Amino acid sequence: MGKALLLTVSLVFLQYVSLVSPYVLLCYYIRSSNQRLPSIMFYPENIDPCLCTHLIYSDNKEIANTYHWKDDPLFKRFTDLKKNNKNLKTLYGFGGWSFGISRFSIIAAKLDSRIQFINSAVPFLRKHGFDGLDLDWRYPGYRGTGNNDKYHFTIFMKELMEAFIAEAQTSGKDRLLLTAPVAANKKDIDAGYEIAEVSKYLDFISVLTLQFNGPWNKLTAHNSPLHRGSADKGEQRNFNVDYVLKYWRDRGAPAAKLLVTFPTYGNSYILKTSKTGIGAPVTVGGSISPYTGQRGFLPYHEICPFLKGATKKMIEDQKVPYAFKGNEWVGYDDQQSFKTKAQWLKDNNFGGATLWTLDMDDYSGTHCNQGLYPLTNTLKTALGISNSECKSSFITSPQEVELKTWCSDQPNGFYPFPIDSHKYFNCARGHSYIMSCPAGLNFDISCHCCDIE
Question: What is the four-CA torsion angle of 204, 208, 209, 210, rounded to 10 degrees?
């Protein structure tokens, strides 16, 4: 009787849980995104805390001593997002391309250096309120960086997970999460990962299905096609989401741990001839993006204005769009391709999605006429993620964020307002309060008070 009742309760609980999305939506915030154009800088306060299940603070320019990690005033502003969403998890992303491939090889190669890294990481994560670590090693064994990188990566992840488990048992806190972005090129996968073994020690594995093609090909091609194209030949047949995710799965990675990466950017090209379809010859990457500062690398909020007056096409066999106007060609993802990819993800029982990155979506809703965060919201809805208890309070204007946080490093006191002499800042314990002088008075810096004009 008791066992039957327990079984019934368990089934009811499982039925209830099934009403809540089982999928993960892991979204990247790039530290340098608040250093872009003044009109579209991006701060933690610009993030809608109700969009994603997990947020990663990724510092791609982290070059500090790996045994004495640096602090950042944005950490607290980032982890404070959990105040509005109690289910949100925030992770610290360590590494990236600019960290240096060989540096990870050196750290992972010896027990002493791995222990030093781990002993620095755990207190750092706890001190700043992070819920885990996203270790961004791109990539183990990449272009011959280390013959033993594959094995060392596994050992490194195993020791990190063991340390996280031990710390949780000692502290009584929830265990720190461990995630990693991994390669999507078959050659890099084979060179760098003991897939079945390393998967045991990672909570989620973000397969970076976002840069299969680019201007280096000298031909137009989409950066993140869902399926193989009818014209694909040789290794090009492997450059698609479907092939790579199944490659990881079929070699031992649990499908529930695998996350499909959805890019919020596209690649652009300058066409060499009058041809405009897939495989058309190109000269170089497209125009330099004002936001990214890179040639041929366009965020979605810059693609939307390009699409006005452009010819838009769907690559039917790959389920992704492209557009061209004049001599410029752009392959990109839109709301429809996100829906299609998300349905494919669910049909194949993968664990969810990784969004790269939040700042390249139209977060302010001012460029695409599709509402706030159109791509991220499309993905959230497609995965059935609902945060009914979350308070969706965020700031869409970077200028408003700057004003709100102006006093964060200032001593208590009154300060002139940078835009309006009739107003002034009252700084109190790092909080910014914008005050107004009475009619006919302006703030006078000499007395730090309101005085006659």
Answer: 140
